[in-house]
Amino acid sequence: MGKLLVLLAVLCLGQIITAERIVNCYWGTWANYRSGNGKFDASNIDPNLCTHLSYSFFGINDNGDIQSLDTWLDYDLGFINKAVSLKHQNPNLKVLAVVGGWNEGSVKYSAMAGDWNKRQNFINSALNLLRNNGFDGLDVDWEYPNQRGGNWNDRSNFVTLLRELKEAFAPYGYELGIAVGAGESIASSSYEIANIAQQVNFINVMTYDFALASDGQTGFNAPQWAIENSINYWINQGAPANKLVLGVGMYGRSFQLSDPSQNWPGAPCRGAGGAGAYTGEGGYLGYNEICQNNWHTVFDYNNAAPYAYSGDQWVSYDNVLSVQWKMDFALSKNLAGAMVWSLETDDYRGLCGESYPLLKTINRKLRW
Fold first, then answer.
1. Which residues is 297 bridged to in the sheet?
2. Among 22, 90, 130, 280, which one has the highest count of C-beta atoms within 10 angstroms of its own C-beta?
3. Catalytic-labelled residue, pool 104, 143, 289, 344
4. What residues pair up with 302 in beta bridges, in sequence order?
5. What is the per-residue pLDDT for 19?
6. CA-CA-CA-CA torsion for 19, 241, 231, 220, nearest 10 degrees?
């Protein structure tokens, strides 16, 4: 009887451990090059706020081999080693290598996925990357199959690539994740959803960037209705809810108003908003920049999201309240968890209050 009770206790503990919701923290390592309070490196990471740390990005060459995009930062400065060493502070942390991203494009990935030899190069180089550096898995962020220079065969080739990766990773226990476009227009064009879902441990759904300055009008980066529609679409197309990880943008999309007196959602804009002091990119502001701006702020309950404006500048973003609403939805759908893009744009220094307010809000809802 005693042994039976111990066995039951172990089984129950195992269920608790495996049922823990994911908080996947993407880290844009290039933030090391930002100035002042925008500079971010491994010392700024609290590994206990994440179940997964996704080290971004690696790329590939024309032969399909995975390669460093910044060898000085990755190896000379030891960023990879510093990332993996965070497991000393949180032994349960999984550190993943992320290959791809928007700037890598789609053409090389389309060619690799459609060629057996290049796929094997990719898989073998992935195994070497993980083994040699102590990573716990790989996240494939191909943006996007059958788009940006890809072709229709990318859809089935992506399934093949993921299946072969899964088989290669199995003996080592490596995790395999993917980052995917969220909305129906992207997802229906790029993915055989039910088939890719069978090959991976989890799917990071990039539920943001629903409005851009190129639309010609202001709009919400991540309105609640768009997030719900996207997740419901993925589930209806055969993705198990417990493999879907809801994306939260720790940044806002900014716009330059055509007329500063017209400062509401849907107002005409003449282009991207001005660059932030840290991120330095037009149309994009980190939450750590937005919270210090002291602009006039409105919470739009129809979209469950805030926006702020000052003069001809307008930005839509997420704050603590909107993140709470998103997490309530994730819980209601029994999703695998949440991911953040990205650590270095949360208010990690606590310049506006507590440190990591958005990430801590996610943890309070999903884990604590």
1. 308
2. 22
3. 143
4. none
5. 64
6. 0
Cα–Cα distance, 183 to 205 (Å, whole number) = 9
pLDDT tier at 4, thresholds 50, 70, 90? very low
End-to-end distance of the chain based on CA atoms, in angstroms? Answer: 33
Q: Is residue 264 part of a domain?
A: no
Whole-Å CA distances, 63 to 118, 124, 168, 284, 349: 6, 12, 19, 33, 41
Range of the domain at 243: 20-249+319-366
> Please, are residues 190 and 154 in contact by the beta-carbon 8 Å criterion?
yes
Angle between helix 224-236 and 320-332 (nearest 10): 20
336 CB neighbour count, 10 Å cutoff = 24
Per the structure, the count of domains in the chain is 1
pLDDT in tens, 172-225: 999 999 999 999 999 999 999 999 999 999 999 999 999 999 999 999 999 999
User: Residue 70: left (phi > 0), alpha (psi -120 to 50), or beta?
Assistant: beta
The pLDDT, as a whole number, for residue 205 is: 99
Q: What are phi and psi of 349, to 5 degrees?
A: -90, -5
pLDDT > 90? residue 135: yes
Give this prediction's pTM.
Answer: 0.94
Catalytic-residue membership of 167: no
Q: Tally DSSP H helices, then E strands, for the chain.
A: 12, 15
CB neighbours (10 Å) of residue 5?
9
pLDDT of 1 over the 80 cut? no
Residue 216, in any domain of the structure: yes
- Spatial contact of 66 and 58, defined as CB atoms under 8 Å apart: yes
- Over residues 32-45, the pLDDT tens digits come to 999 999 999 999 99
Confirm whether 194 is domain-assigned. yes
CATH of the domain at 144: 3.20.20.80
**CA dist list (Å): 247 to 24, 47, 55, 338, 348:** 9, 19, 16, 6, 18
The answer as to whether 132 is a domain residue is: yes
One-letter identity of residue 238: G
Question: What does the radius of gyration of the chain's CA atoms come to, in whole angstroms?
Answer: 21
